[in-house]
Fold this sequence. Notes:
Elements: H1 15-24, E1 26-31, H2 59-72, H3 77-90, E2 95-100, H4 109-121, E3 126-131, H5 134-137, E4 146-151, E5 166-170, H6 173-178, H7 191-194, E6 197-201
Parallel strand pairs: 1-2, 2-3, 3-4, 4-5, 5-6
Helix pairs in contact: 3-4
Amino acid sequence: MPKMFVKLHFSRANKKLQKTEKLHDAEIVGFDLPAGITCPYAGECKKICYAKKGNYQFPSKKSACADNLSASQQDDFTQRMVAIINGMVANTDKNVFVRIHASGDFYSVEYAQKWMDIAIQCPSVTFYAYTKSVSIIRSVTVPDNVKLAFSYGGLQDYLIPAGATVAKIFDTAEDALNAGYDISVNNDDLQVVKGGKLGLIKH
C-alpha cells in the first residue's frame, strides 16, 4: 500500500526574524516539529518551553508540525526538502537560511542524517539549529553549512564538546553578560551562525 502524501510546511519569519532578515538582506524560513515528543533529551527546558504556548497552540500550527513529523519519517523526505529549498534559492537574490526546529529537535540519528544530507545537496544555503540532542549530533558528520548551538538545560549537557557553540537561557541580560555570554542573538538570530556563547533572555 503506497504511503499517503504528506504536505511539508515552512514557517515564514516572525518579528525577530524579520529584523534579522533586514540586517543581513537574507531570507529565513523555518521547519518545525511538535515540541516535546520530538525532544528526547529535554530537561528543565520543559518547564518554560515557548513552543508549547502562544502561536504554537493554534490548530493550524499544530497540524503543520504534525505533518512535518510524519513527512520526516518517510523515505522521500530528503529528496522533497532538497527540491523545495533549492527552489527557494532559485527564486530569490538573497542569501537563504533555514532554521531547523524553532519547535522540536533532532529525535533520531536517522532523522539528523537526513538533514545533513539535505545540507550537502543545498550548498549555498546555511542551516542552523539549537539542539539538546548532543549524542545524536555527535553520531553524524556535520557539513560546514550547518551551524549548531548546543543548548544547556537538557539531559546531555555533560556530552557537549569543549569549544562548541553553546546557548543558555538567562532571566536577565545582566545575568547573561555577567556569565560571559553574548546577548546580541536576542536581536539578531543569525548570531548563532557566528558561534560562541549565546545568552538567550527568557521571555
